[in-house]
Structures are given as C-alpha cells and as structure tokens.
Design brief:
Keywords: Membrane, Transmembrane, Transmembrane helix. Helix content is 60%, strand content 5%. It has 188 residues and is mainly alpha-helical. It has a domain of 131 residues.
C-alpha cells in the first residue's frame, strides 16, 4: 500500500499542503514500520520465497486499524467514516467474487510475470485464497486483474486502499489547517 500513501502525499502536495508536518507526531511511524515490513516481504517474494505470503495478509487488518491513530489524533471522524465505507464496499466486492468462484479469488497476472513477482508455478506453491484466473472465472471485472508488477489488485482492493488514501490525505490537510491557525501546539 506504499503507492497509496505516496499518492496521498502527491495529492496533498499538489493542493499546497506541507507533508512534513505529518512526521512531527509519533502516530505516522507505526504505519511506516508496517510499510517497511511489507517491503521486506515483497523482496522475499521477488526472491522466490512464498513462505510468508499468508503472514503479511493476516497483518493487513492490523495495518488498517493503525490508521485509527491518525483518526483519533487529528479528529478526522467524518473522513474515517467515509473511508470505512470504502473498506466495507471493497470487502463486500471481494467476498462476493470469492463466493462466486468457489471460495477463491482468481488473479490475472500480466506485468507481474515480466517483473518476476509471479511465476507460472506460483499459484501451486502458495496455498492461499488466490488461484490463476482462466475463462471459467465468474465476475471477472471484480477479480484481481489490476497488475502493479508487485501486487495484483481487484476493484475491491482499490476501494480498501481508498481508506488509506483518505486517512493520510485528510490527516495532512487537518495538520496544515491547524498549523495555519496556530492551534498545532495542543496536538503535539
């Protein structure tokens, strides 16, 4: 989800917000630590070791909950409710796709084959919810087909990542608004 955070930074910067203010509070650092763990896992996968794929997948709910630190710190409750709606919608879309496909999420790697993230034998080596998509897959528009080269996302996954984008962006916006009003002392 690093690209989601970087996108939130970019949009905040385009809108004239100072991103560095976010790093003056400890609340962003648990998220960054998780991102480092995630990057290490990606390097391990690129090296052909798929042993930890399920481990990181099990940590994703914890990662999403870590965003609550920012929600409570900067009191961005309305934004977080909207973001939670995206998580629910994304989870629902993923769930109905998996139910339609016998409990599995079909994936259609393209760029990931070129980068080496996925190899033809990957799906038989990794014992998780993903299977290689084929012509038999149902609800193909909701399957994992958005290939980033190091991750393959579904539309549901994109909606879930909207939560991360919203929380990071609106935290930056709130910090900047408070700083411009001189109210930031009470938040540090």
């Amino acid at each position: 989800m690093l690209e989601t955070i970087l996108l939130a930074f970019l949009v905040a910067k385009i809108n004239g917000y100072e991103i560095s203010q976010l790093f003056k509070s400890w609340t962003i650092y648990p998220l960054l630590i998780f991102q480092i763990i995630y990057l290490i896992e990606q390097v391990i996968i690129f090296s052909g070791n798929y042993e930890f794929v399920g481990f990181i997948r099990n940590l994703e709910p914890i990662y999403l909950c870590l965003h609550l630190l920012l929600v409570f710190k900067y009191e961005i409750y309305t934004s977080s409710i909207i973001g939670a709606g995206f998580v629910l919608l994304g989870g629902f879309l993923n769930e109905i796709t998996m139910k339609a496909n016998g409990g599995f999420m079909p994936a259609y790697p393209t760029l990931s084959y070129l980068t080496g993230y996925v190899k033809p034998e990957t799906f038989s080596l990794v014992n998780d919810i993903h299977i290689l998509g084929d012509s038999q897959a149902k609800l193909k528009i909701l399957t994992d087909y958005i290939d980033l080269g190091y991750s393959i996302l579904s539309i549901g996954d994109v909606f879930i990542r909207m939560f991360v984008f919203i929380i990071i962006y609106f935290s930056i916006k709130k910090i900047n608004n408070l700083t411009s009003k001189g109210e930031m002392q009470c938040y540090n």
